[in-house]
Amino acid sequence: xxxxxxxFRAAWWLNSPHxxxxxxxxxxxxxxxxxxxxxxxxxxxxxxDLTWIGKGNATIVLVLxxxxxxxxxxxxxAILHAIQSMHWRGVLMHFRGCSGVPNRLAxxxxxxxxxxxxxxxxxxxKREPTTPIYLVGYSLGANVLLKALGEGKINxxxxxxxxxxxxxxxxxTAEYMCVGLRRVYQKILVQRMVRSIQEKIKHISMPIDxxxxxxxxxxxxxxxxxxxxxxxxxxxxxxYSQSSCRQYLKKIQTPTLILQAKDDPFTPLDALPETCExxxxxxxxxxxxxxxxxxxxxxxxxxxxxxxxxxIMDFFKMHQDQIT
Length: 324
What we know:
two-stranded antiparallel ribbon, 9 helices
């Protein structure tokens, strides 16, 4: 492996990957944010909902949420608060259909869909030709981020990027989530995706077989029946093989930090990239513990230390100092 993170030590009272993963969802206090909403109309007739914080011409951090996430997800709220505290600007890009309003088209988003991210970045850059833009993605959003950087569509516009808790190989993640307690996470996430489709079909027709929709219980089932046909893939296997970011890591030309825990319950160890797979611009910090988008330290349960946002913002500040 590349770099083993020596800065993070998991809290003794959150000493399992599941506790690290679940604590922020259940117990982390939400911060109050001063937000502005923007609806970005797309050329295909659909739209993207953006949530902005901050004003003026300050540095921008673009945030990509994970599967079924949104601006209210704990990690999204936390990083936007950290950005707000820096007096920078932040913008969370809701993937299609994730803002609480069904999108207009049958298609929505998936782990390899980088076109919408490219559209948002080029829109910002057209408005503000010289403003530094940083990029941070979580989980499935991290896969999108790394794939987009590897494709080279956005490199010249991004100063630096951070990817957190990455599912480097989607097929391995889908298989891994079918074992043990990980099945609980999978069931919850699949149910959310099913509910999203059920809400959408109240408004538009869908060119797929929806009779067994409520019976889907695994990522593979859902992706094979819904995600793949809606987005032009033959099946889930083709979707996974073409959309996984691991094959793009060598091509990344933007300074990029990957924060990953070896005990991430969403990503098996054999999906983690070797040093030879990383471009010289990619820094992998691999910690022994931290769970999935957890990374919670601290000696006392009533005073948790949320290490993740500090590490992300320190990385961005380091690159900001280099360009000022």
